[in-house]
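Sat 14:20. Reprocessing the chain from the morning session after the first attempt stalled halfway. Input below, unchanged.
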Amino acid sequence: MPILDFVLCEALVVATAGQPTPQEQPATIRLDVNLILLHAAVMDRAGQFVAGLDKREFQLLVDGAPRPITVFEPDDAPVAAGILVDNSASMISKGSQVIAAALAFARASNPQDEMFVVHFSDQVRLGLPPDKPFTGSISELETALSAFKGEGTTALYDAVELALFHLHATKLERKVLLIISDGGDNSSHEHLADVLRMAQKAGVLIYCIGIYDEADWDQNPRVLTEFAELTGGKAFFPSELNDVTETCVKIAGDIRKQYTLGFVGQEDGAYHRIKITAQSQMYSELRVRTRAGYFAPKP
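Finished this time. Tokens:
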């Protein structure tokens, strides 16, 4: 059942004429509110992921003030995941290993995930057929990834915009993008600030893998780091191309161990800062990674 479709017991009181009979099902109410969803990774002092925490062990602060958590899902809930693969000319020699690494990511992910592929050089395109927006099939993902064509320049921002738009077609609430690239953007129509704002508004978690050679003149790790940090994800820069597969498997594990928290946000058009903390009697110290804030819609 989608996160937004739930019997409301915290934000709304429903008056009924009587108790339902045993044959009746509780009414399901779809909320028409500004629900903000957060992905939260919890780690202990040693940096290991912590699973099995309860909603009561989390505290949510918005602009420094406590807010009630109205939606909570434990780790390993299904996600809609886009794999964005740099097809620029500088990636020609790296293509086969990147495809293998992306497939390793898919195999290590939740089998219920909905996945798609975006290829980008100076043009951006979807890898799956037009009549199949998402798939959980490894063979179909392999076919989509194998459509790699190393040529042209790098329209990274346009690729992220296409992926964000494509995610509108999923009914899953958790949304993730994995970007694999070896350079900065040099041919997009969109601007970095605009695309970052889109990603933050959509609540999409972005992971990035930068695979740079020392001789790459257009490398720009700052861009990948910014995409990751501002959405609550993480950027990785493996020193060797052979390490990309291991990194993809690590990212898949990271995603599967995250919690989903939701709360009713503001509608004032402003940016609001977010902080999540967690405490458990089983751990002396817990650290939570999530996005830094959200942009509220205008009333």
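The longest strand covers residues 35-44.
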